[in-house]
């Protein structure tokens, strides 16, 4: 009888906790912006660089993101709603609205917390500090780094023609740019290990200068006086390539 009473009290306690937690978690999800993703990393890795969405469509989905263009024609960085195309020759363009995009992540950026990293840090230390701030390693994070970059190494890739080679083959012909003593913004996402293939598990970062005259996919960086804005992501919508017209 005493044991049954304990069980009943425990069950009642669990039910109360569930009633309190479930609506709270539901509120978190409903209040959080949705991340939109065009294509998957596995598709791009295998050599699918066909158009999935356009620049105008990406802008309608979010104001902050990263990606690549149709035919893998340069690196894509989205900051404050503007989309930039960093070509393999290092030039930076603002592409037309009907320009095709083969892969992208974008979100209406609404960071939940900010960390200031005033020390000079190499990339490993910087990313470790950002990772250590994550409250939950099972969700996605968008983050923005604004600051000074004593050194940053970025890359872009040349446009491809069908039949497309794999991403690893394209990267063999990448253009690498070593930038020094500049200020700018890193747009980035972090994906948990269980999402490998859907996206790239770990950090994916792109950079553009404050002058909007250089940037690319980040290979290495050193920062100082960095301000990092971070947004957890609980929901996302995936847009897959449509082959019906092929």
TrEMBL record:
InterPro entries xrefs: Acetolactate_a_deCO2ase (IPR005128)
Pathway assigned in UniProt: Polyol metabolism; (R,R)-butane-2,3-diol biosynthesis; (R,R)-butane-2,3-diol from pyruvate: step 2/3
SUPFAM superfamilies membership: AF0104/ALDC/Ptd012-like (SSF117856)
Reactions the enzyme catalyzes: (2S)-2-acetolactate + H(+) = (R)-acetoin + CO2
Record-level Gene Ontology MF annotations: acetolactate decarboxylase activity
GO biological processes: acetoin biosynthetic process
Its EC number(s): 4.1.1.5
UniProt keyword annotation of Lyase present: yes
Gene3D superfamilies with a match to the protein in the record: Hypothetical protein, similar to alpha- acetolactate decarboxylase, domain 2
Annotated keywords: Acetoin biosynthesis, Decarboxylase, Lyase
Top-level EC class as recorded in UniProt: lyase
Protein family per UniProt: Belongs to the alpha-acetolactate decarboxylase family.
Protein name: Alpha-acetolactate decarboxylase
The species this protein was found in: Methanospirillum stamsii
Lineage: Archaea, Methanobacteriati, Methanobacteriota, Stenosarchaea group, Methanomicrobia
């Amino acid at each position: 009888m005493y044991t049954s009473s304990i069980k009943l009290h425990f069950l009642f306690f669990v039910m109360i906790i569930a009633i309190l937690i479930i609506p709270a978690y539901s509120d978190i999800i409903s209040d959080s912006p949705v991340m939109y993703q065009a294509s998957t990393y596995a598709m791009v890795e295998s050599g699918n660089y066909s158009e999935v969405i356009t620049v105008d469509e990406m802008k309608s989905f979010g104001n902050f993101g990263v990606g690549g263009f149709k035919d893998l024609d340069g690196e894509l960085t989205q900051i404050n709603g503007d989309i930039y195309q960093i070509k393999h020759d290092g030039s930076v363009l603002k592409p037309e609205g009907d320009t095709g995009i083969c892969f992208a992540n974008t979100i209406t950026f609404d960071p939940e917390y900010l960390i200031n990293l005033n020390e000079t840090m190499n990339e490993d230390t910087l990313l470790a500090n950002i990772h250590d701030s994550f409250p939950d390693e099972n969700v996605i994070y968008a983050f923005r780094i604004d600051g000074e970059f004593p050194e940053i190494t970025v890359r872009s890739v040349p446009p491809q023609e069908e039949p497309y080679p794999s991403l690893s083959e394209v990267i063999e012909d990448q253009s690498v740019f070593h930038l020094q003593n500049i200020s700018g913004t890193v747009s980035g996402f972090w994906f948990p290990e269980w999402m490998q293939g859907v996206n790239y598990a770990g950090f994916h970062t792109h950079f553009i200068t404050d002058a909007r005259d250089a940037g690319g996919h980040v290979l290495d960086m050193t920062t100082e006086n960095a301000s990092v804005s971070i947004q957890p992501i609980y929901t996302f919508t995936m847009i897959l390539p449509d082959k019906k017209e092929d």
